[in-house]
């Protein structure tokens, strides 16, 4: 028995040294939330073990009884430290006021007052000595002892409840850490229950404090206890819609939110290294490697399978500026990038249209103004009418091109006839020896001015490129309804003799010609503004055609006519039956 007790005492001394060392370590991190309270808790447990060990080694003497009372010098700060640590660890620091500290001192003051001035037996009733007891004395608890026991277990219960609740809501990042803290708390108090209410020759509580020391050691050095604030998890990880990965200093993912798991399509990425977790996303992994800078926050944008991501790596430091981890945040910005690209495209388009308006359209308008002055000098009424019509048409065209540049949608929709639109547009274009043939008719609901512009541009392209073998472009710089005035910018119609056919379909219409056509590989390109084979053309013709079609909610494509020429197909209109063809014009 004596040999067993000596071994027991030296084991307790070793446990006391471990707990004392951890207390010093926690005290060095007292700036952290819960650091001071944890240091007090561990110091109290260490004193507890020291007193028990000393009491066993001096068993049977008056000194052993002194150490038996000295146990409470360790137990009481341990109780207060446990409760304070639970409040701080679970983000309830606001309750750690001076009033709380004062209330925690009430019970120790009452206890030690009863010890020093109270009646005999208030805390312990002692008889002996005896070789059968651990301290060499028969010790029986009195009413103050049992009151202290109830108070202590109440604090343990409240502290454990707070930590258990936190474990349920903290997520995976701190779950192992929280379980370790609960185990460290539960072991000695479980031993206390067995020692008090069971039949044991030695106290199990101090012995089980060895498990407390080992568990807290793991929590400190492996579970990162006090390194990263538990509150940060709730605020940083769970509250963000972006993918968030918390990475430790060994580049191991210790937590990821739902958005992060969905991004990588992996539910079990926690515990993996960043290299393994991002293996399926090489672009993201490469960017992570490039951003892996301990000194500062780094940021970059990557493109991955037509998606754009803003990637940010932020280091996490403790209060002593020691790197303890990183937050790797991935935020999708695909919509933002698309808006930026569209804005850039529209700005470029506006610049090009501004150049067209200032040169290709304004110059002919100046020429027409000069002709008007000349006509007034000669007093020729017909010249007046022609120049005035040219002015009106040019001004209207400028307004329409500006509307195209601003991407305005059609608003003035009326019921129109396909054949009437084709004939009106034909009258506005210098068609030379070309021929218009209308093979079918139908109703069209749309903006008359815009649809006239569509037909005029298609007819003009067919006439000007019909027999040159060139690619149709966007030359809309001709005047409408009359021959061009002679100037440096004028081009004589090149496509004489071409036949242009307008036909109705059940869901739209077609405009074809018997010219050289458009090669298949160039049919999409011709709708791009700036594409033209004419030196004096603006390159807006078929781009405007496409804009008019899209503003009405229709579709357009360039194909090949039956004679091998170009054929514009507009579809997406309200389905109708095609009416009988009209007599060719």
From TrEMBL:
Domain Histidine kinase, chain residue ranges per copy: 356-576
Protein name: histidine kinase
GO MF annotation list: phosphorelay sensor kinase activity
Region (Disordered) residue spans: 464-495
Major enzyme class: transferase
Residue stretches making up the PAS domain: 229-264
Domain PAC: 294-345
InterPro entries: HATPase_C_sf (IPR036890), HATPase_dom (IPR003594), His_kinase_dom (IPR005467), HisK_dim/P_dom (IPR003661), HisK_dim/P_sf (IPR036097), HisKA_7TM (IPR031621), PAS (IPR000014), PAS-assoc_C (IPR000700)
Enzyme Commission number(s) from the entry: 2.7.13.3
Catalysed conversion reaction: ATP + protein L-histidine = ADP + protein N-phospho-L-histidine
UniProt keyword annotations, A-Z: Kinase, Membrane, Phosphoprotein, Transferase, Transmembrane, Transmembrane helix, Two-component regulatory system
Transmembrane region(s): 6-25, 37-57, 63-89, 101-124, 144-166, 178-198
Skewed-composition ranges (Basic and acidic residues): 473-487
NCBIfam families the UniProt entry points to: sensory_box (TIGR00229)
């Amino acid at each position: 028995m004596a040999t067993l007790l000596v071994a027991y005492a030296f084991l307790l001394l070793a446990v006391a040294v471990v707990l004392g060392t951890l207390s010093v370590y926690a005290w060095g991190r007292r700036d952290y939330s819960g650091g001071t309270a944890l240091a007090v808790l561990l110091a109290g447990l260490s004193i507890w073990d020291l007193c028990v060990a000393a009491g066993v080694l001096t068993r049977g003497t008056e000194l052993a009884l002194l150490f038996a009372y000295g146990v409470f010098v360790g137990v009481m700060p341990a109780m207060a430290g446990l409760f304070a640590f639970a409040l701080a660890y679970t983000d309830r620091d606001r309750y750690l006021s001076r009033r709380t500290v004062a209330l925690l001192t009430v019970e120790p003051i009452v206890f030690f007052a009863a010890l020093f001035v109270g009646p005999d037996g208030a805390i312990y009733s002692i008889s002996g000595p005896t070789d059968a007891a651990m301290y060499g004395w028969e010790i029986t608890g009195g009413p103050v002892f049992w009151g202290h026991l109830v108070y202590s277990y109440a604090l343990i219960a409240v502290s454990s409840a707070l930590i258990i609740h936190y474990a349920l809501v903290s997520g995976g990042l701190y779950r192992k850490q929280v379980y370790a803290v609960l185990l460290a708390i539960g072991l000695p108090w479980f031993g206390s229950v067995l020692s008090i209410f069971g039949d044991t020759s030695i106290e199990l509580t101090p012995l089980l404090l060895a498990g407390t020391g080992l568990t807290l050691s793991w929590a400190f050095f492996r579970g990162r206890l006090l390194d990263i604030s538990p509150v940060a998890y709730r605020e940083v990880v769970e509250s963000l819609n972006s993918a968030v990965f918390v990475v430790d200093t060994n580049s191991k993912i210790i937590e990821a939110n739902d958005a992060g798991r969905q991004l990588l399509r992996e539910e079990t990425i926690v515990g993996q290294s960043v290299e393994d977790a991002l293996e399926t996303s090489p672009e993201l992994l490469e960017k992570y490697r490039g951003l892996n800078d301990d000194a500062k926050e780094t940021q970059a944008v990557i493109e991955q399978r037509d998606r754009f991501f803003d990637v940010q790596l932020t280091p996490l430091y403790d209060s002593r500026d020691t790197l303890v981890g990183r937050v790797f945040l991935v935020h999708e910005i695909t919509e933002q990038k698309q808006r930026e690209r569209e804005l850039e495209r529209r700005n470029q388009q506006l610049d090009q249209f501004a150049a067209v308006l200032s040169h290709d359209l304004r110059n002919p308008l100046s020429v027409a103004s000069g002709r008007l002055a000349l006509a007034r000098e000669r007093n020729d009424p017909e010249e007046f009418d022609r120049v005035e019509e040219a002015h009106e048409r040019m001004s209207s065209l400028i307004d329409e091109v500006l509307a195209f540049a601003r991407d305005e949608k059609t608003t003035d929709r009326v019921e129109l006839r396909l054949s009437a639109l084709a004939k009106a547009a034909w009258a506005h274009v210098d068609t030379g020896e070309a021929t218009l043939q209308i093979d079918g008719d139908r109703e069209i609901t749309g903006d008359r001015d815009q649809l006239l512009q569509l037909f005029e541009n298609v007819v003009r392209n067919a006439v000007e490129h019909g027999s040159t073998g060139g690619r149709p472009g966007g030359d809309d710089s001709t005047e409408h309804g009359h021959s061009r005035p002679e100037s440096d910018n004028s081009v004589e119609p090149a496509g004489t003799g071409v036949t242009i056919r307008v036909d109705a379909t059940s869901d739209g219409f077609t405009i074809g010609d018997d010219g050289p056509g458009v090669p298949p590989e160039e049919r999409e390109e011709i709708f791009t503004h700036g594409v033209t084979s004419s030196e004096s053309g603006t390159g807006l013709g078929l781009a405007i055609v496409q804009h008019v079609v899209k503003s009405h909610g229709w579709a357009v494509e360039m194909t090949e006519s039956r004679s091998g020429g170009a054929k514009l197909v507009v579809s997406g209109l309200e389905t109708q039956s095609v009416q009988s063809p009209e007599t060719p014009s």
